[in-house]
Amino acid sequence: PIPNNIQPNLCKGSIIDQYRNSNRYDKIIFVGDGDNDVCAALRLDKTDYAFAKYGEELKTTYKMYDLLKNQYFKQLKTELLLWKTMKDVHEILKKKNIL
């Protein structure tokens, strides 16, 4: 499903579908921050990883996190992981033995 405020040509979900259909990957790691990243996160499976940027102390609203948390959380099939810097993503993937 594409969120109402996202134009179909901006939905990254079709790219996730292409990766999945290629059968070349057993896991997909998706890192995003904007509202046009929501449809991609919603296409991930339970074996995949969705990273949403989060930055409350900066008084910054990252739409991907807000939308997934407040409107689409029940549709999300994978764990929602939070990041502020790419170092956070790297550390989380190391802890999960992905790297």
UniProtKB/TrEMBL annotation:
GO-annotated molecular function? phosphatase activity
Q: A Pfam family matched by this chain, by name?
A: Put_Phosphatase
UniProt xrefs under InterPro entries: HAD-like_sf, HAD_sf, Pase_PHOSPHO-typ
Q: Which residues form a coiled coil?
A: none
The protein's name is: Uncharacterized protein
- PANTHER family, per this entry? LP01149P, PHOSPHATASE, ORPHAN 1, 2
Q: Which organism is it from?
A: Adineta steineri
